Amino acid sequence: MKINRLYVKNFKNIKEIEIDSFSRINVITGDNGNGKSALLSSLVFIFTGSLEEKMDQYIRWGCDSFEIECDFSHEGVDYNYEIEVGKGTKRKLVINGEEEFTNSEAVKKLAEIIDPNLTLHSCVSEQGKTTQLLFQTPAARLKTIKEILKYDTIFDAVENIKSDIKVKANEIEKIEVEQNVLNARAYTYLDEALLKKEVDDSESVEEKLKLQEDIKILFEDNKKKKELYDAKIKDYNVALDKKKELDSKISEINKQIEEIKVEDEKTFDSTELNSLTSSKEEMQVAKVKYDSDLKNYNEAQSKLSEVSSQIDDLATKISEIKIERLSACKYNEQSIEDIQSEVNKLKIELYKKQNELSLAKEGKCSKCGTDLSAKFGTVALEKEVSEIESNISTKTSELSSIKKEIEDYNKKVNDQKEKSSLKKGLTDKIETLTNLKNDYESKVKPEEFDSEAYNKLVEKIQEQNKLKEEIEKNNKVVVEQRNKVNNLNSSLDIYKDELSKLQIEEPKKDFDDSLTFDYDEYESLKKKSILKDQKLAEYNKAVEFNEQLKNEEKENKKKIKENDLLKENINKNISILKDTASILEKDFSSHCIDRSIGFIRDKMNDFFQKTYPKYKVTVKQEKNSVTFFYVDESIGIEAPCSMASGCEKNMLAIANRVALSCIQDLGILILDEIDAEMSNINSMTLFKQLFEQDNIGQFFIITHCEETKEMFESTNNCEIFEIKEGELV
Fold this sequence. Notes:
Blueprint: E1 2-11, E2 14-19, E3 25-29, H1 36-48, E4 66-74, E5 77-85, E6 89-95, E7 99-102, H2 103-113, H3 116-123, E8 124-125, H4 138-148, H5 152-183, H6 192-201, H7 203-262, H8 270-320, H9 333-362, H10 378-443, H11 451-501, H12 519-611, E9 615-622, E10 625-632, E11 637-640, H13 646-661, E12 668-672, H14 680-691, E13 698-702, H15 706-713, E14 718-724, E15 727-728
Parallel strand pairs: 3-13, 3-14, 8-12, 12-13
Antiparallel strand pairs: 1-2, 1-4, 4-5, 5-6, 6-7, 9-10, 10-11, 14-15
Helix pairs in contact: 3-13, 5-12, 6-12, 7-11, 7-12, 8-10, 8-11, 9-10, 12-13, 14-15
């Protein structure tokens, strides 16, 4: 995992801090009470969700809420997590900028990605909080190990198995109840023979009814034939009337056609009309050419004048552009970098001297109580600080002056470049316009325009238009007469077609007028037959009921056998589940815990071999407890970790976190003054070894050891952040 960005506002004594990027080693510095530990606590809160007090107690004095936002990446996936605590608590988790979770869903999703309990024990060492895992009671320690290593899933599995056993026991109880019900079931069959005799007695009525139904079918068929004959007679009469009507219309149309033919037929004169149209088109073409020539001449004359004016304007603008030669600047970017480097070195030296002066004025170290008055001279340090500040001011002023001179020179260079570019552009444009001018000059050659011939042409076109209108009017009358005849012929064809389609044939009589049917007698027989149907229905139901009863009795016996077999199988499964639960609960669980505790012990000893080889860790496990011992091999003393000194507890706690970090590969360590009770040598040894841990990719550290700070300043991939009064300096 890698933390990329952190934003904290109004959290404890932090006003507002935003850090957009982090290195592998990130050191937080500043005086006591300025917000260093609060910044690390915000990270812990993000990934563990835990705080020592109620969340509203962490809101900065005088504010309504606090905000924490963190961007981090883990296993190739980018995450953004936001927390706002005020009147309520709001959380939001965004994955790869797309998938979004809020509030409880966000907490649940983050816990799936990063185990908060294991993170607290493996990645976090906050100021004054070394009493974790190693320093718990043996019973509590075993419980914690089970929680952080997820061995509770084994016990969950055992509980699930026990729950399954109860479920299957309930299934057996249900089967036994069902068996009792099935064994108590009685079967009583109906008397089919008696019901069959009652059905046979009503057969005579059924035969009479059947005969009447045959007669009824014959009567209704004859009735339908009569209705069909009546409908055909009606259609026949309608067709006769339609024929008379069509004959009358056809006779009338033939009469109209003969009347039109009697009139003198007028000739359609298409030849003269075509000749006039052709002559008119030729004259129109001549007129269009006259108009086009005159228009082209006028347009060329106008464009020529416009282009000439543009060329004169551009020549004036070119003459107004003045280009100067500039001498080279005596400064460059390297000059700025050199002076800036000197300023930075002076600032670092100033920071060190100010810290020494602060310690000298206090008289002793706030942490260890060492007397500093002899080590540092206050007067000399104040003089050194004043000289350095003066040098910084001089260099800063010099730097500003050089930057201003370079800026003015670059501005002049750019101005000359712009003038040169403008002049070239104007020259190119003049060249383009000159070519265009030459083209227009070639077109300004007016041809002779005979206005008298043009006017005569227009008059001739008007005369021919009048003559064409008269011919078209005469031809229109002829066309109308011909169209009228065509329309009458079309109507005649339609009526003749309708007449040919008429079916005029008188229908034949195919039914018996004398046939009758007694519906009253038929209904009487139906009523008498109902009793027979009821008896038959009762008989059929009895047969069906007895058949169902036989099937039920058969299925009942089959179900009893199946339940006996199922009960036997369930009992076998219960036996297997009980054996499995016993193995998981006793043997397998104990084995896994032994292996895990042994892994933690070995990883801690590997760390001590590289840092403090005189120390060694041993473990004693009992049924309900785990005890860690530390051994000082130089004096041969073995004691519980809770009996260790302050420095030894810090070393043991760090070794334990390094071991646990190998289980959850998050790759970060958050360390708040872990070396407060260590000597300078031990502190530097500890950090050097931590930085060599391949599985830890990022550190967040607070330390007050000056030698350790100097080591950080010379370390690659190290970023130092200073916090003052709740803000980033």
